[in-house]
Amino acid sequence: EAAADLLVQQKQFTFGLSSSFIEVTIDTPRTSEELKQKIFHVYGEDVGGAVLAQELVIYLAMLIRSEPALFQSMLRLRICLIIQVMESELARKTKSRLTVQDASDRLMGLSPSEMKSLLHFILSGKEFHVEDAGEDEVDHLSIVAASHKQQPSAVLQLGKGTGEDAMDGEGHILLNGEDESESYRQGQWQRRRQLDGALNRVPVNFYQKVWKVLDQSDGILIDGVHLPKHPITNEMTAGELKFALEVEFKLNRVSEPEYRQFLVEALMVLAIIAEHDPAQSLGGVLPLDKIINDANVIFLKDQVMFGGDATQCCAVGADLQIGQCNAPHKICEHFYDSAPSGRYGTMSYIAQAVVSRLRNLPRSDTGNVDSPNAEHTSPSDCMIS
Length: 385
Known about the structure:
By secondary structure, this protein is mainly α. It is 46% helix and 10% strand. It is built from 16 helices and ten strands. A hairpin with a 4-residue loop joins strand 1 and strand 2. The chain is globular.
């Protein structure tokens, strides 16, 4: 019944992760026995993990019935990633700062009401804290004092203007005139990207925008996987669920949720460019990974100029130490922890990287970017370089 409730609301869900090569998608109604077989195929002898996954499906179904708005812009719920986020948030919020294994054990020990509360806080973005009753149990979860604001997701910020944000003398981003003590909290933006990536959140009309980008290029390369223009744009419309699921399938191949959100941001920047000039060709296959890497380099150069936090890891002198902080995909952790909007926001750096690539493309007599014939050219041949 719980699985049916999710499917009725057009929410598919998965068990396992693509990075482990075992991810089972539930996209059609199944009997209880069939679901049980799928779950234990993923979890094997991990009975506790299998039971927890089943519980999460039940709680997600309860929440989608009572508060469907929490699931806006989510197509596929990845149960394993949601569990990982719940564990990391439980570890972060507990005063004793639990290890990953301890947080996993504590999560297993939560009562059904506490488990549902934790899930609700994560989906809604509301702040909470854990009152630890002792070494063996978590007493209960509660929302922090009313003076703390609800933390918006990084996805919601993508639709806002750039504003007049600035960077202070230490390389911290100050948001719309706020002082540093109010605006800068180390790790908050990286955490938000991790949450949004784990929940598969995307901006409103995201998939329709991606379709336009695809239509004005020869395809998109997402984490090394080609999303071709043809035959997709010929066979699927911009608002078709099948197209949205195809795009999400490509994004879900990325196991690091914060990097997944960078891919979403890059696609949004390309969409803005496509909407600005619908007749403009974006060139060949758009390599999102290279665009993000270029944006990271531009960010690090600014960090060197301003003496920012990244000078402690990846922005050391003229020779940048790319990947020094061991963050996913060799992107500096301080770039992950930057706000999307603003003059020094991640989308600004991504936009600079995109514009730089478009400027280097050969152009036809009409002023449009020359684009190789996708039907006769491999993805590697027609990539922007």
